[in-house]
Amino acid sequence: MSAKYYTQFILTDAQYHGGNEFSGVVELSQPMDKQSDSKDIEAVLARNFDLQRSAVKLVSWSRLH
User: Fold this and answer.
1) Quick one: which of 22, 20, 59, 25 has its CA closest to 44?
2) pLDDT tens figures, 41-65
3) Torsion region of 39: left, alpha or beta (phi above 0 gives left; psi -120 to 50 gives alpha)
4) Which helix (H) or strand (E) segment is 40 a member of?
5) pLDDT in tens, 8-24
6) Domains and CATH numbers, the chain
7) Which of 20-49 are b and which e, b meaning 16 or more Cβ less than 10 Å from the residue's Cβ?
8) From CA 54, how far away is CA 44, in angstroms rounded?
């Protein structure tokens, strides 16, 4: 069962300086549990922007129902 999350995040890659804060919906193949960290969401966002996961900093997230 997949789960969707509304996210706010910052891209730290050099090409995004000056306009680096974004928001959007991310869909994960499984819902995150309370013990999961945000690295799964950061990894999906990084893949979508063709960046390394370390170039994405998740500011906030909330599950969409």
Assistant:
1) 25
2) 899 899 988 999 999 999 999 999 8
3) alpha
4) helix 39-48
5) 999 988 777 777 889 99
6) 3-63 (3.10.20.10)
7) eeeeeebebeeeeeeeeebebbbebbbeee
8) 12
